[in-house]
Amino acid sequence: MIQIKDNYKILFIGDSITDIKFNKKQNRNIGGKDIYALQVTRELKKKHKKLKFFYRGIASNRSYHVYDRLTKDCISLKPDVIVMLIGVNDAWENYVPEQYPPLVRPLEPHMKEIYRRIKTELPETKLVTLLPFLIDAMPEKAPFHKVLDEFRVKLREYATGNADEIIDMQEVYYKAQESVDPKLLAHDGVHPTNLGHSIMANEVLKVLD
User: Fold this and answer.
1) Rg (CA), the chain
2) What digits encode the pLDDT tens for the residues 23-79?
């Protein structure tokens, strides 16, 4: 559990799932403009009025994109808490390499360096790592689970000992799908609806006191 103080700065960083502009623009297709970061913000502000929030999600980002912009979009902001979700696009690129240029900037060195820099340059900062996921709304995407699971194992390995909290959203959504139609959680399986985002927000709030 991470204790939140009134003057904290909280950063959300990642790919399209954390990208406010992307989700608003694509809301007609994916129905998820109320992203988890905004939902977390509203809940935390009920108790902590002076909190500052930063949103640095960029659609289509992979681990090396976050690595490239880490100084500007993370280190320089000096956040007290970081919530990071990245990796699904790295896995997807590996799953359908014919759609993308050859993968010349792999996941491992970039994620390791991201964690090293955060730990050494922001030693007091608390880090929450969300592991990527696939919601089973589209049967044709089911084979992607095999590749994504391999990346999730790696991402958990890199986060262990570096992140203060690790949330495996795949396991969370597996459980949610037992009682909720997956199509209500994510129309395309990747980008959550408002309901899908609320589940993620609740998991983040569980570790932020």
Assistant:
1) 16
2) 999 999 999 999 999 999 999 999 999 999 999 999 999 999 999 999 999 999 999
Instruction: Tell me which amino acid residue 42 is.
Output: R
CB 192 within 8 A of CB 185: yes
Q: In angstroms, rounded to a whole number, what is the distance separating the alpha carbons of residues 146 and 140? A: 13
Q: Do residues 103 and 149 lie in contact, with contact meaning Cβ atoms separated by under 8 Å?
A: no
CA 88 to chain centre: 9
Residue 15 · residue 73 · CB < 8 Å: no
For residue 54, is it left (φ>0), alpha (ψ between -120 and 50) or beta? beta
**Adjacent-strand bridge partners of 12:** 55, 83
Q: How far apart are CA 87 and CA 61, in angstroms?
A: 8
Residues in CB range of 132: below 8 A, 6 or more apart: 85, 86, 87, 88, 91, 148, 151, 152, 155, 169, 170
Residues written for the chain? 209
Q: Collapsing DSSP states into helix, strand and coil, what is residue 134?
A: coil
Predicted model pTM: 0.96
Q: How far is CA 134 from CA 39, 60, 63, 112, 186, in A?
A: 21, 15, 17, 23, 9
